[in-house]
Write a structure and sequence with these properties.
The protein is built from four helices and no strands. It has 104 residues and is mainly α.
């Protein structure tokens, strides 16, 4: 059993290295077209938003809205409306979540 685990890890390592090497080998120092560059620049914020939404709204089996969801919403609102720093936003989110959990 442990042998198959190590073979799986080795296989994943090889595939990861191949995927990471594919871009530089194919592009070879050429500039990306502006449309492709724009899409690539938008991928990170979209992925971050998907991760935040899925962790804020899912408990592993179904969607739910709870204290953690309200905390994330409050932190995002502070970040967007006041243009405060990320640390302030995280503190507001944690405080809101803790306060709501204390009340419920």
């Amino acid at each position: 059993m442990t042998s198959s685990i190590w073979w799986t890890i080795a296989g994943c390592t090889v595939v990861t290295i191949a995927i990471k090497a594919f871009g530089p080998v194919v592009m070879g120092g050429r500039e990306l077209p502006p449309r492709v560059g724009g899409v690539i620049m938008l991928m990170a914020p979209a992925l971050l938003a998907a991760l935040v939404v899925s962790s804020a709204l899912a408990d592993g089996e179904h969607l739910h809205i709870g204290a953690d969801t309200a905390g994330v919403a409050a932190g995002a609102a502070v970040l967007v409306l006041t243009r405060a720093g990320v640390l302030t936003s995280v503190l507001v989110a944690a405080s809101m979540t803790a306060a709501l959990r204390l009340l419920v």
